[in-house]
Specification:
InterPro entries: YcjX-like. This is YcjX family protein. This protein has 17 helices and ten strands. With 468 residues, it is an alpha/beta fold. The two termini are 45 Å apart.
């Protein structure tokens, strides 16, 4: 058994080295991870990015496209045939049909390979012909990314931190009361264990719906084929003074450790550890609408997300000797089309301040980071209207709830984001800021143009433009 395991690990190591050599010498590849928390727009981001790479008329800030050096781009079968393919064609149809609608959100890992024929620039371009560069896009739920933080925690540490968090939230009261009334040193009763897990899972769903970001374990929200299994039947509990064998506490501890070993670690090994560029999408406007607690929770979550990455430079020898490390990370505030362009700079300043500590930690480790505000698919148009003697900059679009056309003036974001994020007196927007949800607008695209967007080309330039 031991010899077989060692041989298997050596085989995987040789395959990894061979793949790195082939990639570096013949057809370079970029593995771009796309993640974000609920309602951040991961599916729309990937769909619009691919559509705009296939028809590059709107990608003026992607240098290789602006210079005409991307001779062709096309979709190919992904190299990993065991991972579901990202349903690009279906999602694009959702966004571009006669009655467009937002596609279903990410519920599992999926991949898509976009291959590009690139004409090199400079002196090399005159000496060599076009080369192929593969962009492998990996889509995965943000909730699964947050689970990586569990690897550094014991069950006792995790339970204590979760219960402290729930005690400060009305949503968490039913579960906290149940946990306090449970004898955790008593022998395991499977009915009690399942009731605790169901109640805790109900809290996680409610917290996510209410805009909170720290909803782990992520598979409790997206269980897939693990639904009902013991590995998803645990919950945070008060640690007893003495926990005998076969007690409820011991069994919950065993299941927590099994979750890390059987669910979290395979995800890290098979998907996350091979990513070398990453974009984290953030619904900042939604958090602002929900208030100070949601924003502070989002800031804490960003710190946890950064701790899950292995940032650093991704030179050839580093890949061979230590494995890939994420070398570029973009934090993107989505839905910028819900604001007039005159406020985009303020939205960018908020995402910069929100992720400042996380980005500084990544830069210290050698990774390059950036923050920007984007809209992967523009759903609104801009107007100026007179109201009470004032000129208001508004956005106009179709409301998702009832299909009515409406012009929205959400209010002014503060010029100094620290006033908003640090909870200073008078810093919160109170009733002055309102977010609305817009449906995608019908599209009429000219030949060669992808879907309309805001700064998607700048995001692409940062994430992989240097490799083109």
């Amino acid at each position: 058994m031991v010899i077989g395991r060692i041989a298997d690990e050596l085989t995987r190591g040789v395959e990894g080295i061979t793949g790195s050599i082939n990639e570096a010498l013949f057809e370079p590849g970029i593995r771009l991870g796309v993640t974000g928390l609920a309602r951040a727009g991961k599916t729309v981001f990937i769909t619009s990015l691919v559509a705009n790479m296939l028809d590059r008329g709107r990608m003026g800030h992607l240098t290789a496209a602006a210079e005409g050096r991307i001779l062709a781009s096309f979709l190919q079968p992904q190299p990993d045939v065991t991972v579901p393919r990202f349903e690009y064609e279906s999602h694009l149809s959702d966004l571009t049909c006669a009655h467009p609608h937002w596609p279903d959100s990410t519920r599992a890992v999926s991949e898509l390979r976009l291959s590009m024929r690139i004409k090199p620039n400079g002196l090399i371009g005159g000496l060599s012909g076009p080369r192929t560069v593969h962009l492998d896009i990996v889509d995965y739920p943000g909730e699964w990314l947050l689970d990586l933080g569990l690897l550094d925690q014991s069950y006792a540490e995790w339970s204590a931190s979760v219960l402290r968090r729930l005690e400060g939230r009305a949503l968490g009261a039913p579960y906290v009361d149940m946990a306090r009334g449970t004898d955790t040193a008593a022998p395991l009763d499977e009915v009690v264990a399942q009731t605790l897990a169901r109640t805790f899972t109900a809290y996680l769903h409610a917290a996510r719906a209410d805009g909170f970001s720290d909803c782990t374990p992520g598979r409790f929200l997206l269980p897939g084929d693990l639904a009902g299994s013991p590995v998803l039947t645990f919950a945070p509990l008060l640690k007893p003074d003495n926990a005998p064998r076969r007690s409820l506490w011991r069994e919950m501890e065993t299941r927590f450790e099994a979750y890390k070993a059987r669910v979290v670690k395979p995800f890290f090994r098979e998907h996350f550890a091979r990513i070398d560029r990453q974009v984290v999408l953030v619904d900042v406007l939604g958090a602002l609408h929900r208030g100070p607690e949601a924003i502070q929770d989002m800031r804490d979550t960003m710190q946890g997300i950064l701790g899950s990455f292995r940032p650093g430079r991704n030179d050839f020898l580093t890949q061979l000797l230590r494995g890939k490390r994420v070398e570029k990370i973009l934090f993107a505030a989505t839905k910028a089309d819900h604001l007039h362009h005159s406020q985009h700079q303020r939205l960018t300043a908020i995402i910069e301040e929100l992720t400042r500590e996380a980005r500084e930690r990544a830069r210290f480790a050698g990774a390059e980071t950036a923050a920007m505000s984007i809209a992967a698919l523009r759903a609104t148009t801009e107007e100026s209207r007179q109201h009470n003697g004032q000129t208001l900059d508004v956005v106009r679009g179709k409301l998702l709830e009832d299909g009515r056309m409406a012009a929205l003036y959400p209010g002014e974001l503060p010029a100094d984001p620290r006033v908003l994020l640090n909870g200073e007196e008078g810093g919160w927007l109170e009733g002055d800021f309102e977010a609305m949800r817009f449906a995608p607008a019908p599209l009429t695209l000219r030949p060669g143009d992808g879907p309309p967007h805001i700064r998607l080309d700048r995001a692409a330039q940062f994430l992989f433009g240097d490799r083109l």
